Amino acid sequence: MFSVLSLSLLAIMTVVAGAAALMFWDVAFHQPGATDSRRTAQAGWGLPVLRGEELRSWGKRMVDRLVSAYARQPRTPDATLALAKNISRGVSQVIDDVMTNGPADNSRVIPDCTSRRHEMIGVTGLEAIAMAEELWNHREGAEVVDIRDRAIRNALLARPLTRDSYRSAKITCPLLTDDGQCATYSSRPIYCRSQCRECSGAGCDCPAGDATDAQEFAVTLGGGVLNGLTDGLAAAGMDGQVYELNSALAVALDTPNISTRWGLGEPVFAGCKQVE
Question: What global pTM score does this model have?
Answer without folding.
Answer: 0.74
